[in-house]
What we know:
Distance between the termini: 40 Å
CATH topology of the largest domain: Endonuclease III, domain 1
Largest sheet: none
Number of helices: 13
Number of domains: 2
Amino acid sequence: MTEETSRAAWLARARSYLRDADPVLARLIDDRPEFDPRAWMSQLPPMDLFGALLFQVTGQQLSVPATRRTLARIQALFGGHLPAPAELLGVEPGRLREAGLSWRKIGTLRDLAERLCDGRLDLDVLTGLPDEELMTELTAIPGIGPWTVQGALILALQREDVVLPGDLALRKAVRAAYQLDRLPAQQEVLAIAEKWRPYRSLATSYLFSAAFEPAEPAEPAEPAEAPPEVPGV
């Protein structure tokens, strides 16, 4: 079985599970028969765990378009690619500030890069850790919180059972999809997401799609809300 065939089989199995587990997701899935949960990742540069954390830290408290603009300037500093930890440490911090990073974000990324370069952290070891252990290791770094790590788990490691309860965009998507009369708290999002296990990453992708992309309706859809800003960490 090829990787593509294996992925297609997994996706069919996960969609079937979510459809049976949650009628709201069943509607979202049926409305988007051609939806590819990884399509948006093709718009991003290749990234390992460090690159994904750099992307997430860059995106703290920024909209998606602003994050991508800043990321493009960072790539330009390093010949068109995201830097490895040693490369980031080799650049004057002021150059990163000129690219659009705040001093706080620069401090966070340099702290992370230093730990990876001096052996306090090891990318290969981190990549192999279970989600919760990886969360514990990385959130010990000031400026890196759960939202930052959760995004990296999906982006770099393609973990299948991740949800981002602190993400403002996801909370708005849940409010709309489940027709809530208020913005759900993080604990409410987690409670709703329990029924999605072990496919919470895929369920989250469908909710983001419902919020930002039109389905394939028989009639014209309502204008979509502009992508909101995401919370810091």
